[in-house]
Design goal:
- The complex is a heterodimer of chains A (about 110) and B (about 120).
- Chain A has about 110 residues and is mostly beta strands.
- Helix content of chain A is about 0%, strand content about 45%.
- In chain A, strands 2, 5, 6, 9, 10 and 11 form a six-stranded mixed beta sheet that branches. A four-stranded antiparallel beta sheet of chain A has the order 1-3-8-7, with no helix packed on it.
- Chain B is an all-beta fold and about 120 residues long.
- Chain B starts with a strand and ends with a strand.
- The chains are: A mainly beta (about 110), B mainly beta (about 120).
- The interface between A and B is medium-sized, with 30 and 27 residues.
- Strand 4 of chain A pairs parallel with strand 10 of chain B, so a sheet runs across the interface.
């Protein structure tokens, strides 16, 4: 089955820009989706497709991709952006499995 | 505004069968993938499986032998059964709506609506 790899933890100073990455072979065929997950809450979709933000997601969130790597960039990070971030796609090997990355804990300093 | 409401037993003994149901309110059951995902304490999200409106299912290979996801289109509900649970399967279980399709030279897959989650504890 396919795997998606994320850095376990990333930190950013308040107001600065941070990039969270996700690597996996399935991303050569599927766009990554990104979820913000705060403790005690349901995951929240923040990015999908080429660079699409669901309604209500601030425009400081943006997405990009290159080869087998997808990135979620937060420009001018805010304190409320501190959370776990997960990438996700469907496996491209044909078994129709859905996969999540291991998650990146974002700390806003 | 589509909402997912989930319910089921929150406390199980080892070897019992976990049973959860998720109801879809305010939106169509057709045209989407209906997923179950879980998160054990201190760990990441794990996909359990999905069903579409036609009843086709896909499961996480690591759980496939013990998982059954079923759907009731007349009620806009879908359910999860996981047999022979162990303490390691103590987790928050979420249901979520999945969307998939082609976009230019690629495909997309994302889950845009999530239930609030239900904590399932497996303990003797």
């Amino acid at each position: 089955s396919s795997e998606l790899t994320q850095d376990p933890a990333v930190s950013v100073a308040l107001g600065q820009t941070v990039r969270i990455t996700c690597q996996g072979d399935s991303l050569r065929r599927y766009y990554a989706a990104w979820y913000q997950h705060r403790p005690g809450q349901a995951p929240l979709l923040v990015m999908y497709g080429i660079n699409n933000r669901p309604s209500g997601i601030p425009d400081r969130f943006s997405g990009s991709r290159s080869g087998a790597t997808a990135s979620l960039t937060i420009t001018a990070a805010q304190a409320e952006d501190e959370a776990d971030y997960y990438c996700n796609s469907r496996d491209s090997s044909g078994n129709h499995e859905v996969v999540f990355g291991g998650g990146t804990k974002l700390t806003v300093l | 505004q589509v909402q997912l409401q989930q319910w089921g037993a929150g406390l199980l003994k080892p070897s019992e069968t976990l049973s959860l149901t998720c109801a879809v309110y305010g939106g169509s059951f057709s045209g989407y993938y209906w997923n179950w995902i879980r998160q054990p304490p201190g760990k990441g999200l794990e996909w359990i499986g999905e069903i579409n409106h036609s009843g086709s299912t896909n499961y996480n290979p690591s759980l496939k032998s013990r998982v059954t996801i079923s759907g009731d289109t007349s009620k806009s509900q879908f359910s999860l059964k996981l047999s022979s649970v162990t303490a390691a399967e103590t987790a928050v279980y979420y249901c979520a709506r999945g969307r998939s399709g082609p976009n230019l030279a690629f495909y997309y897959y994302y889950m845009d609506v999530w239930g609030r989650g239900i904590t399932v504890t497996v303990s003797s």
